[in-house]
Amino acid sequence: MTKPTNHPTKRALVAAALIASGLFAAAGAHAESLDAIVKAVKFDDIADIGKQLKNGLDPNTLAPNGDPLLVIAAREKSDKVAAAIATTPNVDLEKEDKAGENALMLASLNGDVGLVKLLIDKGAEVSKKGWAPLHYAATNGQDAVVKVLLDHDAYIDTASPNGTTPLMMAARGNHASTVTLLLDQGADPQVKNQLGITALEFAKHYKAPDAIDILSKRTVRIGASAPADAQKSAK
């Protein structure tokens, strides 16, 4: 009688090797196909991505570096692909990259008004906690986007984790028209961040002459109006 053994037979080893090679090949093919998808997103190849979505591509798929496809599309201004992904059922419009940025934030930074409107229409969160789309629009002086966000009830003095407001970011970049727009819409120039710095002090620190000029006049006017108003009410 042959003794039982726990050692694998040669046939079993060969079978296991074939299975393993098949799995590795599949994994490699998946990686290659994902790289191709990311490339198509970056180049706004709507024909390819449209076909992929129709064939069941998950709109929340992450690139090898962890970036959501929709975020990549927004960053690269691939508007056709971004629109296709954003209108796909079950898409997560709030999905962020490793830097904490979502599609609406990057579309706002780029001044991509059409995509901003589309994302908002599809339910993207306008007043995101922490760094918000309005911060991003103000950072690059994207007035048209600022108007769209404010028209959709974005909180004008929204504070970042360290208390920075959109007005401070606009002042930092010396975006005069954005500073004026935010002030005209009710932004408070006297708000301070966690370090006790106002928008005017931001402008001075970053040597932003136009913002300094505007904020100096508007801040003084607000500060000086209180005593005058008090005097009127006392009469």
UniProtKB/TrEMBL annotation:
Signal peptide: 1-31
Protein name as catalogued: Uncharacterized protein
UniProt keyword terms in alphabetical order: ANK repeat, Signal
Domain of life: Bacteria
Swiss-Prot/TrEMBL ANK repeat ranges: 99-131, 129-161, 162-194
Xref: Gene3D superfamilies: Ankyrin repeat-containing domain
PANTHER family cross-referenced by the UniProt entry: ANKYRIN REPEAT AND SOCS BOX CONTAINING 3, SI:CH211-189E2.2
